[in-house]
Amino acid sequence: MKKIRYYITGHGLGHASRSCHLINTLRARHPHIAVEVVSDAKEWFLRTFLDPSVALERRGLDFGVLQRDSLRMREKETLQALRENLKRGEEIVAAEAASLRASGVDLVAADIPPLAFAAAARAAIPSVGVSNFTWDWIYEGFAEKFAGYDDVVEQVRSAYRCGDLLLRLPFHKGEPALKRVENLPLLARRPLREPAGIRRRLEIPEGCRVALLSFGGFGLEEFDFAPLGRLKDWIFLADPEMARGAPNVRCVSPGDFHYPDLVRMADVVVTKPGYGIVSECIALQTAVLYTPRGDFREQALLVEALHRYTRALPVENEQVRRGEIGEALETLLAQPAAPERLRGDGDIVAAERLAQLL
Fold it and tell me: Which terminal Cβ of the chain has fewer Cβ within 10 Å, N or C?
């Protein structure tokens, strides 16, 4: 039996959600291919959404970006932590290369820890990235603001140069360092249940509109739900850590629902521009009320995609934190439908390509 080891960054939930979807598709279509995952992404998420046949090893090779919450990044601290992490780079690469050989891995896939590619090269195993960006492109933007970190960016880029192929998702920019690039269609999870059943389970009254508050793996601090309570014909769905202070809020705990079911059922998703939620809203044609997430390079690409492929409207961070979004919700829903659609079978195309490479 051929084997793939799939490395997934622990940053947020978007990388994990699309990786789980791709892996599940691969296992369903090619059950003779074994898959093992190495990641420090949230364990409850991986255990809930990953095919149970997939072995999971809990360790991380990168950390992405340090953040205070979903809207506030710690840019300089990220570069400082990255420098410290890379001091152990040789040790990490050597240990992973030995592990790959011992486990009999035939192909490495990654979304998108840089040292995974260096480890694969050390073990003489081909490697494939699946992502719309590589971290060196993100860190390069940080290094433009904080001098003295160009060497750190170059170390990350050097690790990516070991990669054989990038299966590149939509909403990308720049020239990745991996040896070859092939473009994929949109990769987004699909719903499993009809909206009517989800509404009944959440006890949403007939005629009420629904807004899903989605702020990924980092949450949102200092959010005031009280103004939302005055919007009598709306129901708001929120994570337990956020949900408080208004009678028209439904608490949705992680893992209670298949998230694309909530996205399709909602009239509006209120969020920050992250790849996972943006791709699912575009795929399901759900309107998006979004608020900026700081000076994150990927953001401009995702915002452009939102306005091109679905209904979208920006609001300021403080307006969201104060819960003053009633007028914006009505303005958003008055927009016409987006004229363009994206092909959405990226999981199938990527799964077949990985199988072909094996």
Answer: N
